[in-house]
Design goal:
The protein has helices at about 50-100, 110-140, 150-170, 190-205; strands at about 10-15, 20-35, 40-50, 145-150, 170-175, 185, 210-215. By secondary structure, the protein is α+β, with helices and mostly antiparallel strands. Helix 1 (about 50-100) runs antiparallel to helix 2 (about 110-140) and helix 3 runs parallel beside helix 4. The longest helix has about 55 residues, at about 50-100.
């Protein structure tokens, strides 16, 4: 081995310590020459790096898990985006035809049925938007708008959307807007509508009897 002794060498080895436990060591070997005899030999330093290797392996596993999760989220987002397009197209057609129907000569009962159909379509579209927004939140891509909108109208629209459901459970659904509440505000009307819709929907769902009141 002395014939090949030259320079420095570094490497990692698996060894058994005195207790028989398998450990990972870092070896630093330096070739030295005896000043008297001129014989060359290796001087070796061995460092136990088992903890470091375990930490590196744990970090690698964490990075691998994160990469797998990100790939799964990306695939889910792509699927939801594709499904959204497939569902939105016929749904928008349904909403458009319902709007046209409301502009025709209908009696009071037919008008009521058409309004229910439109509100149901709007509700379904809202659910679809909720699913897509959840996907955007998970991906950190949800954008909040800051536009001028009618606060009172949001409250009225949500109430109108769920009044039939409340009536079906023999529950009164009331909307109360204080006079000191400004009609217009700056914010994201879509997100606000989603939040209020979920609150009213859950209130009706978990109320056995009585009144559900939306107060602004």
């Amino acid at each position: 081995m002395a014939e090949s002794c030259t320079g420095k060498q570094t490497g990692e080895l698996l060894l058994h310590d005195v207790s028989g436990k398998l450990i990972t060591v870092l070896t630093n070997m330096v070739c030295v020459t005896d000043s008297v005899t001129g014989v060359r030999s290796w001087r070796t330093a061995i460092i136990d790096i088992s903890d470091r290797k375990r930490n590196e392996n744990a970090l690698h596993q964490a990075e691998l898990a994160q990469s797998t999760a990100e790939s799964a989220n990306q695939a889910k987002s792509q699927f939801l985006s594709a499904m959204s397009h497939e569902i939105r197209t016929p749904l928008n057609g349904l909403l458009g035809m319902t709007e046209l129907l409301l502009n025709t000569k209908l009696d009071a009962e037919q008008q009521g049925f058409a309004h229910i159909a439109r509100r149901s379509g709007d509700s379904l579209l809202g659910i679809l938007n909720d699913v897509l927004d959840l996907s955007k939140i998970e991906a950190g891509k949800l954008e909040i708008e800051a536009v001028r909108f009618d606060v009172w109208q949001v409250a009225r629209d949500v109430t109108a959307l769920y009044v039939d459901r409340a009536r079906g459970k023999r529950i009164e659904l009331a909307c109360q807007i204080n006079d000191d509440v400004p009609i217009h505000a700056i914010g994201d009307p879509v997100r606000l509508t989603q939040i209020v819709t979920n609150l009213v929907s859950n209130a009706i769902k978990f109320t056995g009897a009585g009144v559900v009141s939306l107060r602004v």
